[in-house]
Design goal:
Elements lengths: L1 E4 L8 E4 L2 E17 L4 E19 L5 E5 L5 E5 L6 E4 L2 E4 L3 H6 L11 E3 L16 E4 L5 E11 L2 E11 L2 E3 L1 H6 L44 E3 L2 E12 L10 E15 L27 E9 L1
Length: 302
C-alpha cells in the first residue's frame, strides 16, 4: 500500500492503494520438550525458527521498481524480482590517502584527500554523482529468525529464560551520515575524532575528512552493517509461598524479572530497528532505544 495522487476535486491530494504484488514464502519449525528429571525437578523448553523469502512480483505502471530515499542517506529500492526495500548505493572502497591515489582512480568530481573512494560500477571511467554507479549494497530481511525458551521448576522455585535472534541481514545506519557530519550543526560521534586529517594523513584512516558535504553522506556501504544478533530477552526467578496455614489466601508468589538484559551483536545500535514505512525496512534513524529493566513483584490469590 502506497500513497498515490488523486484529483483534488475529491477533497484530498492522495489516497493509499495497492500498486503491486508481493510474494512471501517460507517455512517454520517448532520443538517442545518437557521432562520430570526427579520428583522435585522439572525441565521444559521450546524452540522455534522461521525462514522467509520476499519477492516483488509486479508493480503497476511502466516502471519495474520503486525508489524511496532521503535527501541524504539510505536509498531503498523495491524492484520486480527482488525483495522489498533492498539498500542501493555506492560500493565504498575506502578513503583517498594521497593525491596520487586520486589521480589514478576513476574521475570522482569534488574528491579531496580523505574523501570516500567509490567503485566505478559501470566501468565508464567516472564515478557519477547520480545513480549510474549504484549497486545493491544490503538486504534488510533476515535469512531466519528464532526464539528459545527454557524453564526449570524445583519445588517451590521456578526459573525461566528467553533468547531471540535474527541472522544474516543488514541495517543501514542513517544516523551515522548525520552524526559523522562535520559541518557544525549537529553533535557528532566520538569516531569523528579519528577522521582523516591533512596534517597526519593516516593511510589506514577509514573515517572520512571533515569535508563531509557532497560524497560522504550519499548512500554507500560505509553505513551498511551486519545486524545478526542474539537477544537475552527475559530472565525470571520466582518462588511460590506456601499458604496452607493462611485461610484467606489461596496462593502467593514473589518474583524478580529482567527484560532486554543483553544484546550479542557487532552492530552498535538496535539491530531490530525499523523506523521507516513498509518499503523502507532496516533503516536506523536513532529511535528511542529499548530499555533494560529489572523488576520485583508479588502476586496474591484470594
Amino acid at each position: 500500500l502506497l500513497a498515490v495522487n488523486i484529483p483534488v476535486i475529491t477533497g484530498f491530494e492522495t489516497t493509499f492503494t495497492n500498486i503491486g504484488k508481493v510474494e512471501n514464502s517460507g517455512v517454520e519449525f517448532g520443538l517442545n520438550f518437557k521432562s520430570n528429571i526427579t520428583d522435585n525437578l522439572k525441565f521444559r523448553s521450546n524452540f522455534n525458527i522461521s525462514f522467509n523469502k520476499n519477492k516483488v512480483l509486479e508493480i503497476d505502471g511502466d516502471n519495474d521498481e520503486i525508489r524511496s530515499q532521503s535527501f541524504y542517506g539510505a536509498t531503498s529500492v523495491s524492484k520486480v524480482g527482488r525483495p522489498i526495500g533492498m539498500f542501493w548505493g555506492y560500493n565504498n572502497l575506502g578513503t583517498f590517502s594521497s593525491q596520487e591515489e586520486i589521480d589514478a582512480s576513476p574521475t570522482q568530481d569534488g574528491a579531496v584527500l580523505g574523501s570516500f573512494i567509490y567503485e566505478d560500477a559501470n566501468g565508464d571511467g567516472e564515478v557519477s554523482y547520480d545513480t549510474q554507479d549504484w549497486v545493491e549494497i544490503g538486504n534488510p530481511h533476515p535469512e531466519f529468525i528464532w526464539a528459545f525458551n527454557m524453564g526449570l521448576d524445583y519445588k517451590a522455585f521456578d526459573f525461566n529464560i528467553v533468547f531471540t535472534g535474527a541472522q544474516n541481514y543488514d541495517v543501514f545506519s542513517q544516523i551515522e551520515s548525520t552524526t559523522m557530519n562535520m559541518d557544525g550543526v549537529f553533535n557528532v560521534e566520538t569516531r569523528a575524532a579519528n577522521r582523516f586529517r591533512y596534517t597526519t594523513r593516516d593511510p589506514n584512516a577509514t573515517i572520512p575528512t571533515s569535508n563531509f558535504w557532497k560524497w560522504e553522506r550519499e548512500s554507500n556501504t560505509f553505513y551498511v552493517h551486519d545486524a545478526s544478533h542474539v537477544w537475552l530477552r527475559n530472565v525470571s526467578l520466582g518462588y511460590t509461598i506456601p499458604v496452607n496455614q493462611i485461610p484467606f489466601l489461596d496462593g502467593a508468589r514473589v518474583f524478580v524479572n529482567g527484560d532486554n538484559l543483553h544484546l550479542f551483536s557487532d552492530y552498535v545500535g538496535n539491530p531490530q530497528v525499523n523506523a521507516r514505512c513498509g518499503i523502507r525496512p532496516g533503516i536506523d534513524d536513532a529511535p528511542y532505544p529499548l530499555p533494560s529493566t529489572i523488576s520485583l513483584g508479588a502476586t496474591f490469590q484470594f
